[in-house]
């Protein structure tokens, strides 16, 4: 299978490397020092499941350099989605399927503004991985799961083909007949984890262990469920309770990528997480005071560490 991976960071680098190691024709789209390192030495994935190496040369600097693909996996930060969607248009119009593994519930809406509707499949992934150094991706733990499928429960040849390739590559993968619900279920947890660990600036063990921050975690997720249900997504009314119980099973040191980005002074995906919940809530007439508060509290850091004005 010819697969293009747009964004060779933790998510794209890991899954792309696994698919390449299984014999698929994988091309990575990367930039900066990561691009240079992969060109020179290849891509290395360090994982408890075994180290993977992708040979040098399987990387290009731009989507326009991809010479045909059966499927594109999108794994860039959310603020790059609009630009990536425009660049994918010619591939998608020639029959290439597109699956975003990004966070959030607005990613596919953005893609469908620029691409043929039938080319965009829904997808989510569950993994903790990051760029350790240029050309090297580190995988934390053993969780590495993908769920994907066509919207509306339709049959999809590319999705079925990807499932087969994933299973051959040792990736835990599943087709879903209700991918929109799956995306929202992940979103409930993701927003809760991201909002609270970033706002409290502590991992989940601290957040869930204090009554006040635990209440914040539950309320943030409950608001996401309310917004999703108002949009017609088949979320159980008590799903926030389910996710809170799930949070109690997580390693106490676990945190979110948004918390990590905040600590490193990087740009945040805030506008697509708690910010998106607040905006959608306002649009739908659903109160989201906890997510609005988190979005406001973290707003000075949205574009990275703020500069302190001189006196």
Automatic annotation (TrEMBL):
GO terms for molecular function: 2-dehydropantoate 2-reductase activity. SUPFAM superfamilies: 6-phosphogluconate dehydrogenase C-terminal domain-like, NAD(P)-binding Rossmann-fold domains. It catalyses: (R)-pantoate + NADP(+) = 2-dehydropantoate + NADPH + H(+). The keyword Cytoplasm does not apply. It holds the Pfam family ApbA_C. Its EC number is 1.1.1.169. The keyword Oxidoreductase applies. Residues 3-151 form the Ketopantoate reductase N-terminal domain. It is an enzyme of class 1 (oxidoreductase). Residues 178-300 form the Ketopantoate reductase C-terminal domain. NCBIfam families: apbA_panE (TIGR00745), PRK06522.2-2 (NF005091). Belongs to the ketopantoate reductase family. Catalyzes the NADPH-dependent reduction of ketopantoate into pantoic acid. This is 2-dehydropantoate 2-reductase. It comes from Streptomyces coffeae. The lineage of its organism: Bacteria, Bacillati, Actinomycetota, Actinomycetes, Kitasatosporales.
């Amino acid at each position: 299978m010819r697969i293009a991976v747009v964004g060779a960071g933790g998510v794209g680098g890991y899954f792309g490397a696994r698919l390449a190691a299984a014999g698929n024709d994988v091309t990575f789209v990367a930039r900066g020092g990561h691009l240079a390192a992969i060109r020179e030495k290849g891509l290395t994935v360090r994982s408890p499941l075994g180290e993977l190496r992708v040979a040098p040369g399987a990387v290009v600097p731009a989507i326009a350099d991809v010479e045909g693909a059966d499927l594109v996996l999108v794994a860039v930060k959310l603020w790059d989605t609009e630009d990536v969607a425009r660049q994918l248009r010619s591939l998608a119009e020639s029959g290439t399927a597109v699956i975003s593994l990004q966070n959030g519930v607005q990613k596919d809406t953005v893609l469908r503004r620029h691409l043929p509707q039938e080319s965009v499949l829904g997808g989510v992934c569950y993994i903790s991985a990051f760029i350790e150094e240029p050309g090297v991706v580190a995988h934390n733990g053993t969780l590495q799961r993908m769920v994907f499928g066509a919207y509306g429960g339709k049959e999809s040849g590319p999705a079925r083909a990807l499932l087969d390739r994933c299973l051959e590559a040792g990736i835990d993968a599943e087709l879903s007949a209700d991918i929109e619900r799956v995306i929202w279920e992940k979103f409930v947890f993701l927003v809760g984890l991201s909002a609270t660990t970033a706002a409290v600036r502590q991992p989940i063990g601290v957040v869930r262990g204090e009554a006040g921050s635990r209440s914040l975690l539950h309320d943030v997720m409950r608001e996401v469920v309310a917004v999703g249900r108002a949009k017609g997504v088949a979320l159980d009314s008590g799903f926030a309770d389910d996710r809170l119980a799930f949070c109690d099973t997580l390693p106490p040191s676990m945190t979110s990528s948004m918390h990590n980005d905040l600590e490193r002074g990087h740009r945040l995906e805030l506008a697509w997480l708690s910010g998106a919940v607040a905006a959608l809530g306002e649009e739908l007439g659903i109160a989201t005071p906890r997510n609005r508060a988190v979005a406001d509290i973290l707003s000075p850091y949205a574009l990275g560490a703020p500069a302190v004005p001189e006196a």
